[in-house]
Write a structure and sequence with these properties.
alpha/beta, Aminopeptidase, 7 domains, eight-stranded mixed β-sheet, about 25% helix
Length: about 1250
């Protein structure tokens, strides 16, 4: 916040923020004729879309006071976008402008009364936001003066001609030192104590309480050769302090952190042991093993951070040189060593999959999960050289000058001329401040129990002479040296060769290669090509969350192919990307990550090459696609570029607007237990927060991340689907690029130490623990009844709650996920079950039906399948629709499947050793029976896994049948949250019939993430406490509950309903407020389609049963729609115009209903009707509310409202909104006409 005073004495409290698209109208209103003379006729939206930085100044009422726009190339076309540096150097050689330290002002507007103050405030904000920036140029026609505002901050440099205009232009410059200067750094003195203590006390009182009032003075006095204290001062006043020490516990760091990429922070020594002994080597995996010390048998830390690499080779003759001179010489030896790329470090840390030539990409894990066999011994290098690092012990700076924190580094490196690395360690929950944004976070070993993160900065990172340029033939040796140790080096060099020879790929696509050089050394390489699938990206990804697509030319879209950067310059990665856009005349870059293309136990992701820039890109959400009836649409179908088979890759993106917009890093250790739909939805929500970077997300799961496509989609049919996530969704999210995966089971929780024990041996530390394990099918416990006694169910004690503790038979399967399905399918095929086996399917859930259908589909005889249903625990069946149940039962009988009802499992193998199961005995209400058994599937009852229960119970978390939570997902431990079917609401809510099981798992995960984001996202408004009476109400979520699958008889089944307490369908239909139902077709014929319309005329339930596959994703979009939106569905049905709903919903008119942005159109139309568009008339919403209370009508209220709607502006606005929607989304909805094409 700042205070501006006008010449007339008026005062405004103002603040700066990034310009948003809704500011355009106000910006246009601030443009004067003089503004147009200075900057020319500008398209404001286009200018903002291409700007690197746009700042808006607002007052405390959020009224726009001023706005300025900055780009990285000159306006008025006085020089080419990619070649302006030489032109400006010729103009004034004393101004050392470079692309790194220069921006150009392309627009400035302000309220006249406050224009001078606004201009200075914006300029100061820009210099503060971009620490590397030193010069802002302003170019205007030479015949125009700058005016009274801009003249206060800009100085004339000279004149130059334009490339397109027949007139001269005046060049003005604004210098950093006049607005937000670099800080003066010097050694600390005792008299600085009084200036510094208020700054320390503002942040933390712990040091004073521990060491006394004069700890800082004592620290300053204790300086020696190993300990130094420095301060930064402004106008003679100390405003910041740093204490550094050359004593570093290298042994502890070597034990806890993977310092291999840094040569252990030591100087090279002849006795260093850098390679594993031959007997430890695994053939073909030496590179992976060389870094395997960061891995463990169960857990791989897939830190998406970039580990710094090269070993230091600082010779003694660097003594006495400036930090920059020493850094330049150091850089030369680093580059020549060949160990220069962060990509090597990441690739050696992670397993790399095979090449996929069809996509012209090299597969490599960005950050994924793997689990190596326990017998592999992990090698850790031994470093014998002297320490080459010093550490920051204490650091503090006034918030006003925090942006200049890096000014300390030049001075402190000069204090230790023989050291090449600066270290700093911070608690995990410390918010990332400006200084460490230039450091690189070190990957810890899995056995690291330190409560701190370690960061490192290399001396060569001080160099500001980095230059990004197009590659040429002479760069090839330098690039070869840079990428020589990379697994993808051949592909990079091939593409560089293609660029140098033809500037094109072999397929003819334009190609560009860029190199980064520092001190005549190649330190980075990037290869891009023109993005040829622009239409596909626009139609399949929400890229328009970040850009206005129509303002970008086709050739401005680039595809990032390779990116390798020496990690000591990692803090220049964003600048590298910015220069690629400028020099390549691009405005957008895309970077896809494809799913692994081979079978593997653990999912990984691969892209063209590993990129250290991944975290400077934003992940783009995929768009839900319409399933088009292409034959029916004919020539009105979308183009092939839109409707072609999806490529299924996760898309990452950056553009000019994002190049100077930093992310907020969240280092909190967030551990999610369970890869359930709730857990995945939670992680998805966090990952796709584009302005946040969660660097410590961990998933603990028995089988890792789902979505591995283990055997295509065949095993999917074993279990019913909730339509939350499928294999395609997992590929489009690529969670493995952002989430650490620990494979194993949670066996204990240590709340005091905040750690989870996995598989009884591995330890995972957490700051926030999220329990989303859900419920699973368990091995049933036989009652032990002897059927020879002819016992009935009533004579047997209830054992349904007892846990089976014996050995699980090898041919007994409980299917809970795709891994279990794969094991069962493999066992069936390996043991000839299909031909000669007898299979018992025990349970009464929908999964029993889908499993029987899979067995029949595999070729088993129905007579060999026994469907045994236990006594029902409720009068409500799993399908809850008599028509569907009858069709399925008839199909089972027709297939020869034997059905037993109300049967309790009594014994396996007549009470003898149950492994393997040869027979199973059951009791019923009448007489018992015995069945032969080669394979036993149990879907008896879902409950919380015993190991999960024991871990929760031993941790003293409140458990009452399920884990008890409040409405904010909190358990009785503030650091532990839980969600999903594992949980129940506390009894104080008096809502035991409601739980998370009643709602959509995907929505529960999203709401859980929203509750967590309030802790991390500073852009969110603070959460207000609910009124006292409302904190006892449970939240009611509105997302649909969905289940589907393939039932016996090859019936494709889908059921969509609102969250509700389960009630029999007959009871529902008997209610007076039930509404109506629309049914077409017949269940037994496989043409059944039922829609329930509630009393408010909204679609509340959809049930489909069809012999033919149908577009489930389309039908899910019908839920919650008003029947009139469905083309007056009820009226047409009553008039007998609808005989087949399947055909009805393939008609062209309804395609918009299935469009992912149709909900946005509805919101926009509602906003029009609720807003007061005409002063003399109330809004349509207000008018509707007034009819009963204030307006006496002589006509039907509906007719009255329709007449008012048509006679006022609302009809025109609604029509315009709908036509704009259809026009803008024409690539998805070409079947609709609008006035321009009629």
């Amino acid at each position: 916040m700042s205070i501006l005073t006008s010449p007339r004495g008026k005062v405004e409290v103002v603040h700066c923020r990034r310009t948003e698209s809704q500011d355009v109208y106000c910006i246009k209103n601030l443009i004067r004729q003089f503004t147009q003379k200075l900057f020319g006729q500008l398209n404001i939206i286009y200018l903002l879309e291409k700007a690197n930085l746009a700042i808006t100044l607002c007052n405390d009422k959020e009224e726009i006071m001023a706005q300025a726009t900055f780009l990285d190339y000159p306006n008025w076309n006085v020089a080419k976008q990619d070649d302006w540096v030489s032109v400006f150097r010729e103009l004034d050689s004393e101004i050392p402008c470079t692309p790194l330290n220069t921006l150009f002002m392309h627009l400035f507007v302000a309220v006249n009364e406050y224009s001078v103050g606004c201009c200075k405030e914006i300029i100061r904000t820009v210099f503060k936001a971009v620490p590397e920036l030193h010069f802002i140029f302003l170019i205007v026609p030479s015949y125009i003066s700058l005016g009274s505002t801009l003249i206060t901050v800009f100085d004339l440099v000279g004149d130059m001609t334009s490339l397109t205009y027949d007139e001269d232009f005046a060049v003005h410059v604004c210098h950093r030192h006049n607005h937000y200067p670099q800080l003066h750094i010097r050694k600390a003195r005792v008299e600085d104590h009084d200036d510094l203590m208020p700054i320390f006390m503002h942040h933390n009182t712990f040091l004073k309480a521990t060491y006394g009032d004069y700890f800082l003075a004592e620290l300053i006095e204790a300086q020696d050769e190993e300990n130094h204290a420095v301060v930064c001062e402004v106008e003679g006043v100390a405003v910041g302090f740093m204490s550094v020490c050359s004593r570093v516990n290298m042994q502890l760091l070597h034990e806890c952190f993977d310092l291999g990429p840094f040569h252990g922070l030591c100087t090279p020594h002849p006795d260093d042991v850098l390679e594993p002994p031959q007997e430890l080597s695994v053939p073909g995996s030496q590179d992976a093993e060389r870094r395997s010390s960061s891995q463990d048998s169960q857990k791989i830390v897939e830190e998406p951070q970039e580990p710094v690499s090269p070993e230091a080779r600082e010779s003694e003759n660097n003594q006495g040189k400036t930090a920059e001179e020493a850094a330049t010489e150091e850089l030369s030896s680093i580059v020549q060593s060949g160990n220069t790329s962060e990509m090597e470090d990441l690739e050696n840390l992670h397993q790399v999959s095979t090449e996929d030539d069809t996509n012209h990409c090299v597969s490599a894990m960005s950050s994924a999960s793997i689990s190596l066999p326990k017998e592999i011994k992990y090698f850790r290098p031994i470093y014998m050289g002297a320490s080459s690092a010093f550490c920051i012990q204490l650091f503090c700076i006034d918030e006003k000058y925090e942006a200049r924190s890096l000014d300390f580094m030049n001075f402190v490196f000069g204090l230790f001329p023989d050291k090449n690395f600066c270290l700093i360690s911070l608690p995990h929950l410390t918010p990332e401040f400006v200084l460490i944004q230039n450091f690189v976070k070190i990957v810890p070993f899995n056995n690291c129990t330190l409560e701190q993160d370690l960061y490192v900065f290399h001396r060569a990172g001080l160099l500001k002479t980095i230059n990004i340029r197009l590659a040429n033939l002479s760069d090839t040796p330098g690039v070869e040296n840079l990428v020589s140790t990379l697994m993808v080096n051949k592909r990079i060099l091939e593409d560089l060769k293609h660029y140098n020879e033809a500037r094109r790929d072999p397929d003819g696509t334009p190609l560009q290669a860029f190199v980064a050089d520092v001190a005549e050394q190649i330190v980075g390489i990037a290869v891009i090509r023109n993005e040829m699938d622009v239409e596909y990206i626009r139609s399949h990804y929400n890229i328009e969350d970040f850009i206005y697509f129509n303002h970008h030319q086709r050739e401005e879209h680039g595809h990032l192919y390779h990116f390798a950067l020496n990690p000591i310059f990692r803090h220049y990665a964003r600048f590298f990307l910015k220069e690629i856009l400028r020099l390549g005349y691009k405005s957008c870059l895309y970077y896809p990550i494809y799913p692994e293309s081979r079978e593997s136990k653990f999912q990984s992701s691969y892209a063209h090459s590993l990129t250290s820039a991944l975290h400077y890109l934003v992940p783009v959400r995929p768009r839900r696609q319409i399933v088009y009836p292409l034959e029916k649409l004919g020539i009105n179908a979308p183009s092939k570029a839109v409707s072609k088979a999806p490529l299924s890759y996760a898309l990452n993106h950056t553009n000019r607007k994002l190049t100077l917009e930093p992310k907020i890093t969240v280092n909190a250790r967030i551990v999610v237990v369970g890869a359930s739909s709730v857990g995945l939805s939670f992680l998805e929500t966090l990952v796709f927060c584009s302005h946040l970077k969660f660097s410590n997300l961990t998933l603990i799961s028995t089988h890792g991340l789902p979505g591995k496509k283990l055997l295509g989609t065949e095993q999917r049919k074993f279990l019913a689907c909730d339509h939350c996530f499928n294999d395609k969704d997992h590929a489009l999210m690529s969670l493995c690029s952002w989430v650490n995966v620990v494979v194993g089971r949670m066996t204990a929780i240590d709340r005091a130490a905040k750690r989870v024990v996995v598989s009884q041996e591995e330890i995972v530390l957490y700051d926030h623990l999220i329990l989303c394990t859900g419920q699973q099918y368990q091995v049933p416990c036989p009652t032990g009844a002897d059927i020879s006694q002819l016992l009935t169910n009533r004579e047997i004690p209830n054992s349904s709650k007892q846990r089976y503790t014996g050995k699980v038979p090898c041919n007994h399967f409980t299917l809970n996920d795709e891994e279990d399905c794969l094991k069962a399918l493999t066992w069936i095929r390996n043991n000839s079950i299909i031909i000669e086996g007898n299979v018992i399917v025990y349970g009464d859930t929908i999964d029993t039906y889908t499993t029987v259908e899979v067995l029949l589909n595999l070729g088993m005889k129905g007579s060999s399948i026994y469907l045994v249903q236990p006594p029902p625990t409720s009068t409500i069946t799993c399908i809850n629709n008599y028509s569907v149940e009858s069709a399925v039962e008839d199909a089972l009988r027709a297939a020869g499947v034997t059905i037993y009802q109300e049967a309790l499992l009594a014994q396996w193998n007549d009470g003898q050793n149950p492994d393997p199961i040869h027979s199973a005995s059951f009791t019923t209400p009448t007489k018992p029976f015995k069945l032969p058994c080669s394979l036993f599937f149990s879907f008896f009852e879902k409950s919380v896994d015993y190991e999960t229960f024991k871990a929760i119970n031993d941790a003293c978390l409140v458990y009452d049948g399920r884990l008890v939570i409040d409405v904010n997902f909190q358990t009785n431990d503030v650091a532990i949250r839980a969600a999903g079917s594992l949980t129940k609401f506390s009894n104080r809510y008096y809502s035991n019939e409601w739980s998370h099981s009643s709602f959509s798992s995907k929505e529960i995960g999203f709401q859980l993430a929203a509750a967590m984001l309030n802790l991390f996202d500073p852009t969110l408004e603070p959460v207000t406490e609910p009124p006292a009476d409302l904190d006892r109400l449970i939240p009611m979520y509105k997302g649909a509950k969905i289940q589907g699958g393939v039932l016996p008889g090859s019936y494709h089944y889908l059921h969509i309903t609102k969250p509700a307490i389960q009630t029999s369908l007959k009871v529902q239909m008997a209610q007076p407020d039930f509404g109506s139902e629309i049914v077409t077709g017949n269940a037994k014929d496989g043409t059944y389609f039922r829609i329930h319309i509630n009393k408010y005329k909204m679609v509340e339930t959809i049930t489909c049963l069809s012999k033919e596959p149908f577009p489930s994703s389309n039908y899910i979009r019908l839920f919650g729609q008003h029947e009139q939106v469905l083309n007056n569905l009820c009226a047409r049905y009553e008039d007998k115009l609808i005989t087949d709903l399947y055909s009805y919903f393939t008609e062209p008119w309804c395609m918009a209903l299935f469009h992912d942005r149709f909900i946005d159109l509805r919101k926009e139309l509602r906003q029009i009707l609720t807003s007061k568009e005409e002063e003399e008339h109330p809004s349509m919403e207000q008018l509707a509310r007034q009819i009963d209370d204030e307006i006496n009508l002589n006509e039907n209220p509906r007719k009255y409202l329709r007449r008012v709607f048509q006679e006022t502006i609302y009809k025109t606005l609604v029509e315009k909104s709908i036509l704009d929607y259809l026009h803008y989304n024409h690539y998805h909805l070409p079947m609709y006409a609008w006035p321009d094409i009629i």
